[in-house]
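Consider this record:
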Amino acid sequence: MNNSLMTIFKTGIITQRDIFPDLPDEADGLPAVTAAPCAGAACGRCAAACPAGAVSVSDDTVTLDRGRCLSCGACREVCPSGTITRDRSTRTAVSRREELILTNRSGSVADQPEPARLPFLRSLHIREVSTGDNAADLEVIAGTNAIFDIARFGIHFVASPRFADALLVTGPVGRNMQEPLRRCYDAMAEPRLVIAVGVSAISGGLHGRGYAEADGVSGILPVNVYIPGDPPHPWSIIHGILLAMGRL
């Protein structure tokens, strides 16, 4: 039998000490919008290149909806002015859907009061429900490995919604998953959180606005935190969970 303690001594600590580091240079990350002058409708290359309809232009304004963005980088590659650039940050989660909509003009997000803090500062028990996004599921699982070690933040996954404080949803929530998701939410005790992980859970992504009514979780349940990306990085997922807990 291998000596586990000796293995640790030989391999060293692999858990990342610095939380929420920027993505490496070879990673694209999410796109961001700068204040660089934009030709807007006279150009329109970014909107034409976006397969998800996440980019729109009018006059000299470009609008990017990270809640629909697939992180393909097509808009950034065709932008001649540098108005759309790469964002390598893993601190991408937000508590309001409007914060995912970026423009090259200031004041695009309406001022709203911050949501009330819930008593989850020390620990959180999560029930994950996948409605059809294996990529996001794998990144959630990666967050539990020794590199990211989500448990060190007091975050644990449970098998039953009756023991959960938060419902973590991945996938576009098609018609046949809507009622099971509601039942899972109803089985949870108050207070409770809902975290939408990935573009599919936020807006349905490429599955949205179709016959299956797969438009994300916000039309079914109240969402406390949105984590954009397709799929989000494990650090972005941890950032969103800590944001939901009120620890950021």
Residues 175-186 form the longest helix (12 residues). The radius of gyration is 19 Å. The mean pLDDT is 87.
